[in-house]
Specification:
single chain, 154 residues, alpha+beta, Nuclear Transport Factor 2, Chain: A, 6-stranded mixed β-sheet
């Protein structure tokens, strides 16, 4: 039996806001806000489907909120602009909190070049005194279009 009761409507609204805050904060380069959305010991895994030719260039895992956000901020310096769009989400109560799977499309632009990705955020979320936070995220990319060089440039 789960240690957590079923999600309330308020929980679902707070989790949806957490997910949206992540997308908006990335696009605004609001790194202090991004840090605040994670637990201190968060784990972020990035994985591309094997059929994508650039998959080997983008695989990796990082741990700790400050290290995760430092990696994100370094990557995002390469882009002139980004936009992260969220699609459908599914939530499941677990013994540790909530497991959430959310569709995304991410647009990355530098000059007239672009690199767009689509996939899912596979998250483990926990309720803390400050509200819901991301404790584990697997960013799973299922498709891409445009030039990977936009993301690989120094």
């Amino acid at each position: 039996m789960s240690k957590n009761p079923a999600l309330t409507g308020q929980d679902e609204a707070e989790i949806a806001r957490l997910l949206a805050d992540y997308a908006f904060s990335l696009d605004r380069r609001d790194w202090p806000r991004v840090v605040s959305l994670f637990t201190e010991d968060v784990s972020l895994q990035i994985a591309f489907d094997d059929y994508l030719p650039e998959a080997a260039d983008f695989q990796g895992t990082s741990s700790g909120s400050k290290a995760v956000v430092e990696g994100l901020s370094q990557q995002f310096k390469k882009y002139d602009g980004t936009q992260h769009l969220l699609g459908a989400s599914q939530f499941e109560v677990t013994d540790g909190g909530v497991h959430a799977v959310t569709q995304f499309v991410a647009h990355h632009h530098r000059g007239s070049d672009y690199y767009h990705t689509g996939g899912t955020y596979d998250d483990d979320l926990v309720r803390t005194p400050e509200g819901w936070k991301i404790a584990r995220r697997a960013l799973l990319v299922h498709w891409t279009t445009g030039s990977p060089d936009v993301a690989l440039a120094p």
